Structure formats: C-alpha cells, structure tokens
C-alpha cells in the first residue's frame, strides 16, 4: 500500500514566486493545468490537499477558487495558467462550483483595467507566436494611442 504524502513532502514540492504563489512542481493535470498529487493510490487536487493541511475543509461538490488568478486581469487562463498550480492556502478559497464558474466568467467580461468587453469594445488580437486569437479592449487601445501621441507631441 502506497504511503500517503506527508505535509513536509508536499511543501518540499513547491516553489515560491515573487507574487507569493506557491507553485506545485509535481504532477499537473494535462487537460486542466491544475496541480495534482498521488495519495494512497488515487489522484487528488493539490489545492484541496493544501487547504486540508491548513485546516480548511472543502465541502463535497465545492471547488477551490485560486484568488491569485481571479484578481490577475493579465492572465490568459487555460491549461498553461500558472495560477492553477498555486497551492498557497492564502490564495485559495473553497466556493460552491457555481460561484467558481461565475468568477471565471466575470474575468472574461472585463479587461485587465476593468473595461467591460462589450461587442463595441472588444477586438480580436492575433498572437502569432502562440497561434491563437485573444480578445482585446478597444478603450485600452485608444487610451494607449492617446498617451503615445501626447508623448510624441512633447518631444
């Protein structure tokens, strides 16, 4: 029978970032990008285990919201999102699944500066290096162009 991962072993498999995230360096779910850990022959969410070690219960059917992700408007999300690997209990909050989904949708409704992505304010931005298209904010683009023109006029 496999030994359960100890708390010391768990934290030894993390590295701290300058933002305060503790990124899991162990197994990653290739589809979702979330940190996972093998324990007693089964696969568990590393964020759930981190909260367990911190004495925080995650009720059945609830999700763990990565607050570091929810508040980072620059993150593109997806399986490559490093926030999904964060196991810092201070960055994690157990929430009902519906609330977790609502927060995720909210992130996609606003740009990193808080402008709403409406049909009139959204543009498609090609990211050729990654071979994908992301949504951009027309208000941010107009404001950046105005700053550039003002800087050029002062020179």
Describe this protein's structure.
By secondary structure, the chain is of the alpha+beta class. The chain has two domains: 1-109, Homing Intron 3 (I-Ppo) Encoded Endonuclease, Chain A (Alpha-Beta Complex); 112-155, no CATH class. It is 31% helix and 23% strand. The chain contains five helices and eight strands; from the N terminus they run αββββαβαβαββα. The strands form four sheets. A two-stranded antiparallel sheet has the order 1-2. A two-stranded antiparallel sheet has the order 3-4. The longest helix is centred in the C-terminal third of the chain and has 17 residues, at 138-154. It starts with 6 loop residues before the first helix and ends with a helix.
Can you lay out the helices and strands and say which pair or pack?
Blueprint: H1 7-12, E1 14-16, E2 22-24, E3 36-39, E4 42-45, H2 46-53, E5 62-66, H3 67-70, E6 92-96, H4 97-109, E7 122-127, E8 132-137, H5 138-154
Antiparallel strand pairs: 1-2, 3-4, 5-6, 7-8
Descriptive labels:
155 residues, alpha+beta, Homing Intron 3 (I-Ppo) Encoded Endonuclease, Chain A, two-stranded antiparallel sheet, 5 helices, 31% helix
* Beta-strand content bin: 15-25%
**Which geometry do the CA atoms define?**
elongated
Q: Which fold name corresponds to the CATH topology of the largest domain?
A: Homing Intron 3 (I-Ppo) Encoded Endonuclease, Chain A
Number of helices: 5
Total E-strand runs: 8
pLDDT averaged residue by residue: 84
Biggest sheet: strands side by side, in what order? 1-2
Poorly predicted segments:
none
Name the helicity range: 25-40%
Alpha-carbon distance between the termini? 72 Å
Following the backbone from N to C, one meets helices and strands in this order, namely HEEEEHEHEHEEH
Largest sheet: 2 strands, antiparallel
- Please state the second-level CATH architecture of the largest domain: Alpha-Beta Complex
Write down the domain tally: 2
User: Which CATH class of the largest domain?
Assistant: Alpha Beta
